[in-house]
Specification:
- By secondary structure, the chain is α+β, with helices and mostly antiparallel strands.
- It folds into two domains: 4-250, MutM-like, N-terminal (N-terminal domain of MutM-like DNA repair proteins); 264-399, Helicase, Ruva Protein, domain 3.
- Helix content is 22%, strand content 17%.
- The protein has nine helices and twelve strands.
- The protein has helices at 4-17, 40-48, 100-103, 211-217, 264-273, 278-283, 293-303, 316-337, 353-358, and strands spanning 22-28, 52-53, 57-59, 62-68, 119-124, 129-134, 168-175, 183-188, 194-202, 245-247, 377-381, 384-388.
- The strands form three sheets. Strands 2, 3, 4, 5, 9 and 10 form a six-stranded antiparallel β-sheet that branches. It has a four-stranded antiparallel β-sheet with strand order 1-7-8-6, covered by helices on one side.
- It is elongated.
- Bound molecules: zinc ion.
- Zinc ion (ZN) binds at residues 369, 371-372, 374, 389, 391-392.
């Protein structure tokens, strides 16, 4: 399963290669892959066609592309103060972007009329989902890493832009991409992933089946949508855009550890308020998002904290060390994972090159702890496993 660093690698690639493009058409080859979209494949196509992809944003393992209204339908009264616009320069590493002015077909240029996006294309990659950009003119200057999002099967897939991967589920036809990208393909062998178009809502908004959101859904001319009102918060909702809104299904998901707007001290307090085992809190997406089973074990080993330690008995310094370690492990994976993105999916179980090379405890039962040499132990944990060193990470009485 793609973990947060892999999803960030994809986000960064989309940011550089397809942001700015207009969706010309949509082909859905497998309905199941848009099952989370209200209204089915036809509605999915209708809501995407003609829209512009204005950013690539991530929170935890959720990835979304806010959609600009088709400029021809924008009511001039909805014009947004330019100062409140999403500032593209705030995106990650602007120096690596392709200069749009040099490559965009002038006929496809979007008019300067813009509102806050009211909806977004939401992607969840599930176990095996990939977003592949085809037809982009990528130069070697961009170096290794996210550009690898281009080629799912190096040496073969890029031979023809029109080539269809055997597991192609959805294809977006693009025009006007700064990179020249022609298609954004959603490829998903095991079909646990999904795409949908979702309303953008303020952080923490109630779920879509709540009375409040139903009332809102029944009155959705653009001028009434929450997206065009003054947002409740001006804090960016995810990594990759200044937009303070996020897709409805992500509204209850907590910020992740790589989010520059994460309030770490607040997170430490919330972790210690829980009455549970520390690893369960790490995996709780409503407390902190994007930490999977593997990174949780690696972080706890680095922090020398046993997975079953009760949160209320952890010192502030312990919690901070666990969270710092988790962020550190993910940053290292991000740095390495970018160079071998294709390999992430060679094994459908999602064991990436990074994992093979760099894991300290995960999957190493009865192998020597890399710090003290004691044999690593495996315990059953929530239908999965927890790996730990019995010496570096002494078990609490409750787990013995
Ligand atoms: Zn050890």
């Amino acid at each position: 399963m793609p973990e947060l660093p892999e999803v960030e690698t994809v986000r960064d690639g989309l940011d550089r290669l397809v942001v700015g493009a207009v969706v010309r058409d949509v082909e859905v080859f497998r309905e199941y892959s848009v099952r989370r979209h209200d209204g089915g494949p036809d509605s999915f196509r209708d809501q995407l066609a003609g829209r512009r992809l204005v950013a690539a944003v991530r929170r935890g393992k959720f990835l979304w592309l806010p959609l600009a209204e088709p400029s021809s339908q924008v009511d001039p009264s909805l014009r947004v103060d330019p100062s409140s616009r999403v500032d593209p320069s705030s995106r990650v590493d602007p120096s690596s972007r392709v200069d749009p002015s040099s490559q965009v077909d002038p006929s496809s240029r979007v008019e300067p009329v813009e509102t806050h996006p009211a909806a977004a294309l939401l992607a969840h990659l599930g176990m095996s989902g990939q977003l592949l950009v085809r037809g982009a003119k990528v130069t070697g200057e961009q170096g290794p890493g996210p550009s690898a999002v281009l080629a799912d099967e190096p040496g073969r897939a890029t031979a023809a832009d029109d080539w269809r991967h055997p597991h192609l589920r959805v294809r977006l036809h693009l025009t006007g991409a700064p990179s020249g990208a022609r298609y954004l393909d959603f490829v998903d062998q095991r079909t646990f992933g999904h795409l949908s178009v979702q309303d953008l809502v303020p952080d923490g908004a109630p779920p879509s089946n709540s009375p409040a959101s139903k009332a809102r859904a029944s009155t959705t001319p653009p001028s009434n949508s929450p997206a065009t009102k003054a947002p409740a918060s001006t804090v960016p909702a995810g990594y990759g855009s200044d937009l303070p809104l996020l897709p409805q299904p992500v509204a209850h998901i907590a910020r992740d550890l790589l989010d520059p707007n994460l309030d770490l001290e607040d997170l430490v307090r919330r972790v210690r308020r829980r009455r549970t085992q520390v690893k369960r809190v790490l995996l709780d997406q409503t407390v902190v998002s994007g930490v999977g089973n593997i990174y949780a074990d690696e972080a706890l080993w680095r922090a020398k904290v046993h997975w079953a330690r009760p949160t209320e008995k952890l010192r502030v310094a312990d919690v901070r060390r666990v969270l710092d370690s988790a962020a550190e492990v993910m940053r290292e994976a991000l740095a390495q994972g970018g160079t071998s993105f294709d390999e992430l999916y060679v094994n459908v179980n999602g064991q990436s090159g990074y994992f093979d090379r760099s894991l300290a405890v995960y999957g190493r039962e009865n192998e020597e702890c890399r710090r003290c040499g004691t044999l690593v132990r495996r315990d059953a944990f929530m239908n999965r496993s927890s790996f730990s060193c019995p010496v570096c990470q002494p078990a609490p009485r409750s787990a013995k």
